[in-house]
Fold:
Amino acid sequence: MSRLPTSGAAMDTHLPRSRRKAVIVILASLLLAVLAAIGWWAMPHGLPVAAADLRIGVVERGIFLDEVVVRASAEPLNSVILDSVESGRIEEVYASDGALVKKGQLLFRISNPQRNLELLARKAEHAQQIFNLSNLRVAQQASSSEHQRRLDDLRFALQQGGKQHARNLRLSQQGFISGVALEESADRLHQQQRALAQEQQAAQLESQVRRDAAAQLEASIQGLSSGLLLVGATVDALAVRAPSDGRLTDFRLQVGESISTGKNVGRIDDPARYKLSAKVDEFYLNRMAAGRQASMLQDGRSYALAVQTIYPQIKEGRFTVELVFSKGQPPVLNPGQSLDAQITLGEPAPALLLPNGAFINDSGGAWVFVLDESGTQAQRRDVRIGRRNNSQLEVLDGLRAGERVILSGYTTYGNSPQLHIKQ
Structure:
């Protein structure tokens, strides 16, 4: 019995229409996902930044120069501040700003009628006390003379009374006078002795009182003399003189101007010797010390300096140091002249170096943006920075030699972990 050939149509599976649609949707979704992944990998990642706005440096091995370059200004080494010690009205001005003056030279004169009246009153009081002391001494001399005269009379009377009593005693023993007469003679002698003693005591007491009064007047006169000297000094201070030789600076008084006590009217600068004053970043405060060596270059010649004074008060992220010339100064320097000074903080040493840049102020040296090999992407990376100078940073950890780092500021990048560099 013969068989008919089997038809292929019997082997085909007939799928429902709904299942075919689901398969198509799944395949389309997978295709879209693959295309999206390809697009994502092809698209740039990170915050886009223009390459033209970037400053890029390369990490290299080299010698770290442990020094800092500061912008310093020249100032007189010694200055004397001129303050008005008296208030009043400017009557005359004898000097001008910028002039060279000598010690004792008259600069200006102030008028103050009250001080002149005080001086006249003190002089009158002083003269009155001197007059009183003179009168007291005259009276003391007259009283002393009077007491001395009375004492002489009393001593003479006592002497005569003693002689009379001695005679009466002999006559009484011989029976020529009565006992009553002898007793009266003795009473007169005792009365004369008491009178002499009283007069001596009175003279001593009066002399002591007058001496005390004279001493008090002398002390008062001494006090008045001191006060007179002080008032005289204040009147003399109305004529202001230069306390030292030098150049008069910031002196701009005008005739007719009123000034108060303690007002600064200028200063006198040493015209020959100078020092440098510089503002230094607070990062270097712990490493700065008096005696640190420094140098400056002017007209092709180097001049040695040394840190003399450090003012640790920080203002706007900086503190102040003063440097003095240790082996001669430039022949021409002017107050306020700006100069570059190089302060040495340590010895040069081999290190992994990164050029200094604005980024150090934004990240504090804790992290940097490192470029990849293509130069189109930059990743944020934690680093550890050691010493620094104006042009170099010492890299302690986080970077390798040859890597490229963005040196420009990071403030516009926010917290972005990755940058896309647009060429």
User: Anything to note?
Assistant: The CA atoms of residues 123 and 264 lie 31 Å apart. The chain is about 35% helix and 30% strand.
